[in-house]
Amino acid sequence: MSAPDGRVVVTTDVLVEGRHFRRDWGSGEDTGRRAAAANLADIVAMGAVPTGIVVGLACPAELEIAWVEAFSDGLRDECALVGASVIGGDISRSDAIFISVTAFGDLEERAPVLRGGAGVGDVVALCGRTGYAAAGLAILSRGFRAGKAFIDAYRRPEPPYAEGKSAALAGATSMCDVSDGLIQDLGHIAAASGVQIDLQRAAFDVPSRMVEIGSALGQDPLGWVLGGGDDHALVATFPSSGSVPDGWQVVGTTLRAADRDDAPPVTIDGEAPTMAGWNHF
Description:
Keywords: ATP-binding, Kinase, Magnesium, Metal-binding, Nucleotide-binding, Thiamine biosynthesis, Transferase. Mg(2+) 4 binds at residues 11, 42. It catalyses: thiamine phosphate + ATP = thiamine diphosphate + ADP. With 281 residues, the chain is α+β, with helices and mostly antiparallel strands. The chain has 2 domains: 8-106, CATH 3.30.1330.10; 123-268, Phosphoribosyl-aminoimidazole Synthetase, Chain A, domain 2 (Alpha-Beta Complex), CATH 3.90.650.10. Strands 6-8-5-9-7-10 form a 6-stranded mixed β-sheet. Strands 1-4-2-3 form a 4-stranded mixed β-sheet, with helices on one face. It contains 8 helices and 10 strands.
């Protein structure tokens, strides 16, 4: 791990068995990939390049060694996608599995892209898929196994790692990864930046297979796309006078924040959304 100019970003995340993952829904390697991806995506969402992670693992004494080894393999292999390494950690005994990952990143002499930099009139752009992991979670929760692409997306997210740096170099004014749902996470940008964000419904093309699964489960697939988390796509704002990088899709704009205290921070075609993202409490 290195940062020659001393400009480092850091993030941490906790996964709890039964709340963030289940062993009967994915392998130890899947869990390792998910745990690493959640943190590496946070690093690239600040415009940095991931360099390393440290991991804390608390688990029951009877947990199979094979699961722990597969978990370690998943951490290593996900880090390898971005040239990072597992550089340390700790282990302890507990009644359930608790995982804590802290990731570090090098800004390469750039300023970090924060959530509070969006200005009125910026465009909002998205890179990566949303709704896939939420659809996979819904399938698994109902005990189904159809819809492999969505189940795989839940088990092993595929963040667009390279695009965080691309966005920073293109002049992104704010950015975050979509871990709690697009509306929820854009709400964090809106609050930090003092703006309102309006999304365009027409900008979101729901895959036909997701529509079919939503119909079978009695759920609105647009709710997965706009409210579902765990895909770790990147969402950013860019000056309207600039250019949005290739691979990013414009999905909305920033507006002057409403004077009313009860005004939603994020709207869809000017209307308050009916779906919400993940709230830890």
